[in-house]
Amino acid sequence: MHHGELNIVPHGLSKGYPEYIDFNVLPSRIIKFEKDLIKIINGNISSYYWDIASSIYKEVGYNKAKAPMMLMNRFEVFQVGNYPLDPMDFIYEVLVPEVTLRLIQEDRNNSITLEDAKEILNDSIEFGVYMHSNEID
To answer: Does a structural domain hold residue 1?
Structure first.
């Protein structure tokens, strides 16, 4: 707890990470990304997360890619093609992280790229878990 209060929180706040998230407005924010998400689903725009999932499923096959150890190995990358993901896997491994990047980009007034948002996402994980884990039902 002391580490969080002395290190994690000040670091996150200094980088502009949100101290409060209004989870009630998330659905209305997310619906704005519908066109982008449909383009990702249809393969009309590239997706970092689709590329990773697709390459893993192609490399090891569907059953091995779904094994618990494989899922844990790519957990950090995700907080298809010849080997399609089932709908829930696609949502969790591709669409949720893509929405998260767009929310971060929007939080920064659309002044950053999706690549910048990915860096913020990776850097802010510890802060987000510390600050907001009790807010999620």
So the answer is: no
